[in-house]
Write a structure and sequence with these properties.
Helix 2 packs parallel to helix 9 and helix 3 packs parallel to helix 4. The chain is globular, with a radius of gyration of 21 Å. It has a seven-stranded mixed β-sheet, with helices on both faces. A three-stranded antiparallel β-sheet has the order 7-6-11, with no helix packed on it. A three-stranded antiparallel β-sheet has the order 10-12-13, with no helix packed on it. By secondary structure, it is an alpha/beta fold. Helix 6 links the parallel strand 4 and strand 5. It folds into two domains: about 240 residues, Aspartate Aminotransferase, domain 2 (3-Layer(aba) Sandwich), CATH 3.40.640.10; about 120 residues, Aspartate Aminotransferase, domain 1 (Alpha-Beta Complex). It has 13 helices and 13 strands.
Length: about 375
């Protein structure tokens, strides 16, 4: 990578993570060991919930939360998300119902949720977009009024708050530790909840339906006895990833602060351009900028031309998310949907700029410079 190349994202890892992995390898407990339990305890404390269950991905967390709920029906969620959100609904035997988003927060619209509630609705899945929480107060009111489960897709919002509470503490929270997320293990996910019965069912479901782990049975009477209490999956997190997660969690607030500083600098530079909507922080919480996205006025700019021009210059701009889920082949053909005008407009005009904790001032300057040049090149002439 040259000095003028800037990747879209990069995990903030170093010697502490290397030492954590080495410690696990030396211990002999590569899986089913004590690191996972320690990570779960620390993560639950950070989010402010009673239980956290470590898994192999956020997708598995979403899937198991619906399976453990034990009721099949319709789940209301935004189409403006990564397809994993909807995939988890379908593979759990439920039906996705897509609702439109708010044009400023880019999160699901509470009014659109309400318009889509039916007798078949069992759950609401707000997806916290790009580091900003959905507007949870009206969503929780709707859930209580209609007796619905709330399943937070918090993959992009570790550390974000709404009304003084962390994402993942309102309903059942599902987090991702993919390398592009605010804290990274390489892969992995976590489910958070205050419901002990839900946590217990998910712990069994993640490990073939067996309620206890190998480490928990180690040293007990008849440790080889493994009894399934339900049919389950192999969705467990290995100890190597949990060890990385424990280090990353300790650094999370610092990494999020750096993201916010970089975002503020980009805000200052980009707001001078006509027809460019920068991220909108919530009035009732904080934004942790898992992504830095801007929405372009489609009458003024060709979004694809802007993104491609930046990439030609070695600056890793991208698009999240186009096409939205309801326009992708499987969902288009199998799940009819109501009109989603805001989703479709935003998907066609949004772009993501590089942002990660250890960006330098020179990298930020390079992103702003490349964006300015690409904006000029992508300007519509008529």
């Amino acid at each position: 990578m040259t000095e003028r190349e800037v990747p879209l994202s990069r995990p903030c890892t170093g010697e502490d993570e290397i030492e954590a992995v080495s410690r696990v390898i030396r211990s002999g407990w590569l899986a089913h060991g004590p690191e996972v339990k320690a990570f779960e305890s620390a993560f639950a404390g950070y989010i402010g919930v009673s239980h956290a269950v470590a898994l192999n991905s956020a997708t598995s967390a979403l899937h198991l939360a619906l399976i453990a709920h034990g009721v099949r029906g319709e789940v209301i969620l935004p189409s403006f998300t990564f397809v994993a959100s909807a995939n988890a609904v379908v593979t759990a035997g439920c039906t996705p119902v897509f609702a439109d988003i708010d044009p400023l927060s880019l999160c699901i619209s509470p009014a659109a949720i309400e318009a889509n509630i039916s007798e078949q609705t069992i759950a609401i899945m707000p997806v916290h977009f790009g580091g900003r929480a959905s507007d949870m107060a009206p969503i929780m009111e709707l859930a209580e009024k209609h007796g619905l489960m709330v399943l937070e897709d918090s993959a992009e919002a570790i550390g974000a708050t709404c009304d003084g509470h962390m994402t993942g503490s309102f309903g059942a929270g599902c987090f991702s530790f993919f390398p592009t997320k605010n804290m990274a293990c390489g892969e992995g996910g976590m489910l958070t909840t205050d419901d002990p019965e839900l946590a217990e069912r998910i712990r069994a479901l993640r490990g073939h339906g067996i309620a206890s782990t190998t480490h928990e049975r180690h040293g007990s009477h008849n440790p080889w006895r493994r009894e399934a209490v339900m049919p389950g999956y192999n969705f467990r997190m290995p100890d190597v990833l949990a060890a990385i997660g424990r280090v990353q969690l300790k650094k999370l607030d610092f990494m999020n602060e750096r993201r916010c500083e970089h975002a503020a600098w980009l805000d200052m530079r980009l707001r001078e351009y006509k027809g460019v909507q920068t991220p909108t922080p919530p009035a009732n919480g904080n934004h942790v900028y898992q992504m830095y996205t801007v929405v372009l006025d489609p009458k003024l700019y060709d979004r694809n031309a802007v993104v491609n021009r930046m990439r030609e210059q070695g600056v890793g701009a991208s698009v999240h998310f186009d096409p939205p889920v309801h326009q992708q082949e499987y969902y288009r053909e199998n799940f009819p949907h109501s009109a989603l005008p805001v989703t479709e407009s935003v998907a066609a005009s949004i772009l993501t700029l590089p942002l990660f904790p250890d960006m330098t001032k020179a990298m930020l300057e390079r992103v702003a410079e490349a964006f300015s040049e690409a904006l000029a090149a992508g300007q519509r002439t008529s």
